[in-house]
UniProtKB/TrEMBL annotation:
<feature type="domain" description="VOC">
    <location>
        <begin position="5"/>
        <end position="126"/>
    </location>
</feature>
<dbReference type="Pfam" id="PF00903">
    <property type="entry name" value="Glyoxalase"/>
</dbReference>
<dbReference type="InterPro" id="IPR029068">
    <property type="entry name" value="Glyas_Bleomycin-R_OHBP_Dase"/>
</dbReference>
<protein>
    <submittedName>
        <fullName>VOC family protein</fullName>
    </submittedName>
</protein>
<dbReference type="InterPro" id="IPR004360">
    <property type="entry name" value="Glyas_Fos-R_dOase_dom"/>
</dbReference>
<dbReference type="InterPro" id="IPR037523">
    <property type="entry name" value="VOC_core"/>
</dbReference>
Length: 126
């Protein structure tokens, strides 16, 4: 039954206007108003529905990852757009705020940041 339907993921936020500015303005993603929320076009052709949630609570884990070919350039673009990177206790980060997992065989090079609602996002270079 569900194998022949259209499926999409959703992301709750506490302020739809702030989300529109962040995702469309600061990140430069294509947004379309849809069903009372925002349909966000993701790289690779997928979409994500962003909606206002009156009982919103940010997850304590990464909800959206952007795979990039050059993490240094991606982090520079984020910081140039005024986005602050997260630095988690117990982890090592370089001067740019990137955790260099490839050098230590601990996963990808990755940097985390949050949207205005507190949702955790990342850019990573596999």
């Amino acid at each position: 039954m569900l194998t022949s339907t259209y499926a999409f993921s959703g992301l709750g936020v506490s302020d739809l206007t702030a989300a529109k500015h962040f995702y469309g303005g600061q990140l430069g993603l294509e947004l379309e108003e849809d069903m009372g929320g925002l349909r966000m076009q993701l790289p690779g052709g997928q979409s994500l529905f962003v909606y206002y949630s009156p009982a919103f609570s940010a997850a304590g884990y990464t909800v959206l990852n952007f795979q990039v070919p050059d993490i240094d350039a991606a982090v520079q673009e984020l910081t140039d757009a005024g986005i602050q990177l997260e630095r988690y206790e117990g982890m090592q980060f370089d001067e740019l705020g990137i955790s260099r997992g490839k050098a230590t065989s601990q996963g990808p090079d990755i940097a985390w940041f949050r949207d205005p609602a507190g949702n955790v996002l990342s850019v990573l270079e596999p």
